[in-house]
Amino acid sequence: MEFTMEIDMIKTNTFDLPREGGFPGLSFRRFRGESDYPKILATIQGSKEADGVERSDTLEEVVHNYSHLVNCDPYQDMLFAEVDEQMVGYTRVWWNQNLDGEWFGFHLAFLLPAWRGKGIGSVFLMHNEKRLQEIAERLANGGLLRSDAPRYYEVFSSDTEVLKEGLLKKNGYTPIRYFFEMVRPSLEDIPEAPMPLGLEVRPVQPEHLSAIWAAMQEAFRDHWNYVPPAEEDYLNWLENPIHDRSLWKVAWDGDRVAGMVLSFINHDENREYNRKRGYTEDISVCRPWRKQGLARSLIVQSLEAVKERGMTEAALGVDANNLTGALRLYESVGFQVTRRSSAFRKPLIGLDE
């Protein structure tokens, strides 16, 4: 009964925790619009050190992300925790469906360290699961989700987020996939890696962007848990403020994109962590051009490009179980595993089950 009571009270816009789990001044509310963006940023920034996570989000990035949400209505799918009307944490849910028809309800939460261990994280988790159950049932009733389609909650967590992982495991979540952050600590001794015959890298022009996006999606269809993108995802990608197209290495075979590495430099992050790092990300090769050394050549060219910009190290992320052997490839060009994160999953049970 307590769980139902809490969720019903959340729907009224604000509510207090039960006496045995709460404390004076704690309340919950919905998203209020753009005025919440600086508060969201402050909560993210205030959480990262305790979580052992390196990130340097800016207000521009928060605004950009919230301008391109997919399968998420922040006015319905977010919950904010406040103490004496000062925000101390927030949570958000969204969903996706992969090519196999599996439905995933994702959720994330940030909570300032001083307010952890007080029951707020548990309320966030209960709220998220309840909200995602409602969304899944609504989609199924509207014929947008097969009644027999597998449904899961899914959460991503760095291995340094110990309290978060403990809460997830306590509530029935299991790690089902692992991901590595890899760093090349020096940009000296970059190996040679010639392009396969018949392919060339060209400077990216605005008229190339739709073809690059389509080729990237074609390549990533073979990756774990691929979700077909919405139009908003394309707009998000086009307008991403971190992109630097002058660093991109895109290989062409005539008028077809064969593969790419879309490097970038996060200058805010470099200033915060006192380093000179470039990222070699969105590494992809379309099927007809795989196993010819194209990915290796594009990575090497990308390392040279960020080195020319004054960087002294490079980083990337990789699925530890990638079927194309990406981990071995990255190790062969000097990248080393520095951090692991996990995808946690839990079966979603219907509202009346």
CATH architecture name of the largest domain: 3-Layer(aba) Sandwich
Unreliable residue runs = 1-21
- How helix-rich are the residues, as a percent range? 25-40%
- Computed CA radius of gyration, to the nearest angstrom: 22 Å
Describe the global form. globular
The average pLDDT score comes to: 91
CATH names the topology of the largest domain as: Aminopeptidase
Explain the overall architecture.
The chain is 33% helix and 25% strand. It is of the alpha+beta class. It has 2 domains: 171 residues, Gcn5-related N-acetyltransferase (GNAT) (Aminopeptidase), CATH 3.40.630; 161 residues, 3-Layer(aba) Sandwich (Aminopeptidase), CATH 3.40.630. The strands form 2 sheets. Strands 1-2-3-4-5-13-6-12-10 form a 9-stranded mixed beta sheet. Strands 7-8-9-11 form a 4-stranded antiparallel beta sheet, sandwiched between helices. Helix 1 packs across helix 5. It is globular. The two termini are 16 Å apart. The N terminus is likely disordered.
What would a concise description of this structure say?
With 353 residues, this protein is α+β, with helices and mostly antiparallel strands. It is built from eleven helices and 13 strands. The model is unreliable at 1-21 (pLDDT under 50).
